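Hey, can you fold this?
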Amino acid sequence: GSNVLKMSSGIQIKPKTAVQKSKTSSPLSCSPEPAIKPQPKPSDKLNPKTIDPFGAYSRPPSAFAAIYAKGGIPCRLVHGSVKHKLQWECLPETVPFDPLLVTLAEGLRETKHPYTFVSKEGFKELLMVEGATEKAIPLLPRLVPVLKAALAHSDDEVFGRGLDALVQLSAVVGPSLNDHLKHLLTNLSRRLMDKKFREKITVALQKLEQYGGKVS
């Protein structure tokens, strides 16, 4: 009726031009089809008239984002006035490392909020639980390729998160990481030529040597 037309357009218009206006107005207005359905405010992502079927919204941007959307990550972001923090649905000590630690490592390559924070902080906090060493070592063959992908990423922030995660992992698993370092050093040496990362990478290499022992 006329009430539906007024709501969809957001302004007072004549009923006969409402359908035409809704096609050209802002994305916030509802198209005629969704207006008939039970949901009065469908997401813009689901509006077939406002998206390219082959665009970014036609599939999840990553495995991590898909898992996060389904509630597969047992922690969420809590916004603070000064800094954000994670709130776990259960104690991190009780969460299986396999596959969560690998999934969080995958999330390090995300570039959108809140995925960036959840993956970085979640990876860090999971490695801080008691018994993390025994739980993380068996996952190294799967973790190292994922961290390598983060270190090879063109985005500076993704690289930084990958480097931090590598050092955190090294501190936990110690010499067990040594056999895998050869797969990661190439990516570090490439960024070593970048002035803004030179000092950070140098410090990271020193820590890898410290945690890995003489063999490293």
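Oh, and this one too while you're at it.
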Amino acid sequence: GHLHNSEAFNYGVETWEAYKRGGLSKDLVEEQKKVQEADLLIFQFPLFWFNMPAILKGWMDRVLVQGFAYDLSKSYDCGLLQDKLSLFSFTTGGSQEVYSKEGIGGDIRYVLWPMQHGIMHFCGVKVLEPHICYAPENVSEEKRKEMLAAWTQRLKTLWKEEPIDCSPDWYFK
């Protein structure tokens, strides 16, 4: 397609304008349809540099565009995707102690703030408690099997869970 403003490129404006005129690429429209049809969005990834991997962040940047996932006048509890639930399920390289308030990595909730609150909650998505497997490569095979069993069990009861508060208090208390 064409740029809305070829003199001063602004990614947010360009994607919003492309969305409004139906000018997003076919693959992005297909991903948006998947999001529209889903009741629950599960994001499974390894924590990488205290964040989701770049490919997942790129997916969010490209798919969750203004007009589709959010509008500046309709965000957070009034966001455009407020009928959705999300769950971040991830592995870490460090132990649970590393990601504690006293640990070198700080409380894992601090890491989750931009992902869960800044992206999902901003778009209106309700956020379930994250599922975290700490340092699976550094534990016994038995412990890894326990992690998988816990994930399997959680998936069976997921629809009974209540979303987190998603307020600053939840992340920084």
